[in-house]
Design brief:
Order of helices and strands: HEEEEHHEEHHHHHHHHH
Strand content: 5-15%
Shape: elongated
Radius of gyration: 21 Å
Number of helices: 12
Number of strands: 6
Number of domains: 2
Structural class: alpha+beta
Oligomer: single chain
Length: 348
């Protein structure tokens, strides 16, 4: 089913002491921002998730505890164990995910930092109450965006990326060209593809960017940047909505091997009973790379928020492939499965 941006009902009440108060998804937060805002970044095994019976009124919707056994510290300092306060049953905004037995990359902030973020967002009386309860606790930066589950083989790259971000963020003024190169580097790898592409141009993610009201001044990608992102996709293809995001970023710049990598994933997904909401948009952009002037029209996609009909899309795609000479590529193997509900896969 295609996500539909819009206000969502909060089950229960507002999330007390959260980074953004209200029954509404928070603006997306990428790896660069997570790295800058976290007091502590750890790789840890989720030893247990506990739900105390009486968390107290200021933790009414963040009353669960994730007990983490720390394996690596990438920023800050901590003993081998850390307890993180969160709300596993929150619906909107989407909460962080702590999966017992799994290894998480967690971006954490102290209660003092969270209290400072609340300044000016709530009443003076509420701030006084929070000042007696938040200090001494750990929380997750940016809720669902602040817990990631990279494969073990991806963690060395991620650590290098985080360390490079910290080094750049320590400079004053921040070297913008090096920051942009960092994001392109992130966009070229599957594990950080969403983070890099969203930071470079949030318009590539039409769903999550709906909740982002920050000023936007995206730069047109250079040919070298497009090539780097396409090379990365060839080596590590995705099968989530970053396929469509990548196609938006690279535009019409030709690269047959990239097209084949995209088509391999698209053909596999197109054969499934339930096709993802973004697949029609992705196929439309592929058609435009082969000469279509309006891929959405060629594929019969009318409404931006209309969920594509699988049978009609298969038929229209076959016709477009024949009309524009798009090569027929066999379905490619699926990439490793991802943990849903975090980062770019945060539910809207």
């Amino acid at each position: 089913m295609r996500p539909f941006p819009g206000p969502l009902l909060l089950v229960g009440a507002v999330l007390l002491a959260a980074p953004s108060v209200g029954a509404y998804p928070i603006p997306p937060v990428t790896l660069w921002q997570l790295t800058a805002e976290a007091d502590l970044i750890v790789v840890a095994r989720v030893a247990a998730v506990e739900s105390p019976p009486n968390p107290g009124k200021n933790f009414a919707f963040e009353g669960d505890i994730a007990r983490l056994h720390v394996l690596e510290v990438w920023k800050g300092s901590i003993d081998s164990e850390v307890a993180v306060t969160f709300g596993k049953n929150m619906i909107c905004p989407a909460p962080p995910r702590y999966i017992p037995g799994e290894t998480v990359l967690a971006f954490l902030e102290t209660g003092e930092t969270r209290l400072a973020r609340m300044e000016g967002r709530t009443s003076k009386k509420h701030m006084e109450e929070l000042a007696t309860t938040l200090p001494g606790h750990w929380f997750t930066v940016a809720l669902s965006y602040g817990t990631l589950y990279p494969e073990a083989g991806d963690r060395p790259f991620l650590r290098d990326l985080v360390e490079d971000a910290l080094a750049l963020q320590a400079q004053s003024p921040l070297p913008e060209s090096e920051q942009r190169a960092w994001h392109v580097r992130a966009a070229a790898r599957r594990v950080t593809r969403w983070h890099g592409l969203y930071a470079l141009d949030r318009r590539t993610d039409e769903v999550l960017s709906f909740y982002d009201r920050k000023p936007m001044r995206p730069k047109i990608p250079t040919a070298d940047e497009r090539r780097e992102v396409m090379r990365g996709f060839i080596q590590e293809p995705s099968d989530d909505h970053t396929v469509a995001m990548t196609l938006v970023f690279v535009g019409a710049q030709p690269e047959p091997e990239f097209d084949r990598a995209v088509l391999g994933q698209a053909e596999r997904l197109l054969a499934e009973e339930d096709i993802p909401y973004w697949l029609g948009d992705a196929l439309a952009r592929v058609a435009e790379r082969y000469g279509s002037r309006n891929g959405r029209r060629d594929l019969g996609l009318k409404d931006d928020w209309e969920e594509p009909n699988a049978r009609a899309l298969r038929r229209a795609w076959g016709q477009a492939r024949e009309r524009y000479g798009i090569p027929q590529v066999p379905p490619a193997p699926a990439p490793p499965p991802e943990v849903r509900g975090v980062a770019g896969l945060t539910p809207d």
